[in-house]
Amino acid sequence: MSDTNPGDSSAARPTGEQPAVDALARLANLTSPPPGGSSIWRRREAAPESADTPATEPVAAATDPPPTPFSPPSAGTIGRLSRVQATDLWPGAVAMAGWIAATPDVIAEQIGSSGLQFSTPDSNVLIGTDAKGRAICVVCETGPASDEALGVMLRIAAHQDGGTVVWITGEPTDPHRAAVSWLNHSMPPRFYLLRVSGVRIDGSASAPVFDLVVRPPRTASSSSDAIGQDAAPPANGVTPQRRVEDHVPEG
Length: 251
Prior knowledge:
The longest helix is centred in the middle third of the chain and has 14 residues, at 147-160. The protein has helices spanning 9-12, 23-31, 93-102, 105-111, 147-160, 174-184, and strands at 81-84, 117-118, 125-129, 135-140, 164-169, 190-201, 207-214. Helices cover 22% and strands 17% of the residues. The chain has a domain at 90-233.
């Protein structure tokens, strides 16, 4: 008696022959998979990490330096800046003129010139030339602006009849600012008014600070010229108007 089931078609199928595929059944399985069954069309969920599995931590590059904790500076490492008057820097205007003659770059930076050279002064007035050989005069004053220094500046400006005239004072006043601005529109020289003061950090040595107060007007005929060059005469006899930029705002 044979153990083969007559209804079992797989037993009678020759070895190597593929079973018949029911297309309708296959489509039914693809569209509605049986409950609990796995399907190749379903995304496999990631298995939860167990407590025994160590978490992956980012590995820092070997070249990265370790972070340095921020520490605020102590009170003893920061100094305090204080202002001093020009009279605390030099004993008088003659001493200031001698210092400027030895360090002319501090004035050249303010007026936009270069190559300034001054003769050794015997008063508070410096006479010299710039890099192009044009005349330049500097009148020094450590205290408040005075009419005497203004008169000296006018006398030298009339003698130069051109070039550059710089007036340095410890405290320029409004009338003297207006006078220098008026001179820039009335005479050939280019006039500058500078304020000088000093700064000190705690008990350190004082350093002078120069602030530009009044400068020559930047007219259309002279805006492209170098600072210190004689201003060209106004075109068509029209006098250039006074401009706000002649006065440099404080602060």
